[in-house]
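Good morning C.,

I know you're traveling, so I'll keep this short. The sequence:
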Amino acid sequence: MMPAARESLLDAAASALARRPWSAVRMVDVAAAAGVSRQTLYNEFGSKEGLARALVRREADGYLAGVERALAAHTDPRDRLTATAEWMASAARDSALVRAMLTGCWNERLPAPALAAVRSSSAVPAQRRADGPLPSPGDFVRLVRDRAVTVLAAAATEDTADLTRSCELAVRLALSCVAAPPGEDGVAELVRGVLVRHLV
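The tokens, ready to paste straight into the viewer:
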């Protein structure tokens, strides 16, 4: 199957999930919405659980790609971390799946695949990857923190341990804003206020 068809199926599943709980999303409807047969859907994902894992994997990848864009959007370290924190909060605000992945709080409307890898018999490389381990909230903290450290280390004047603490602080502060959103511009103000003291 072409990657574009897989994306169409994932788009159809995400669209269905926006309208009804995952338990009410039917494979036949996802296939019809994507314009493929139900057999094609099963060939690609194996099962509804496989589709759920692929959907979560795609959301995780999209979230991390957004982190990369935020880190690349500025040259000043504070601006980079502030943009990253704002992205984290906005991505979670815009997607219930991202919010669940970052907080570990999965509600009954969402698919909630096990984070551990599952046995995969899929011949589809993208599905084998989706059947691998899915990131936990702690994994996301480490992934974003470590990526920020790597990007900022080239121009940093502080030692790596201090930079790592500053990046982790910004990431965890952003995550607190996911759980308890501040007012408008609140994420940026909070992160900037902390980084003034922590990032030279």
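Safe travels,
E.
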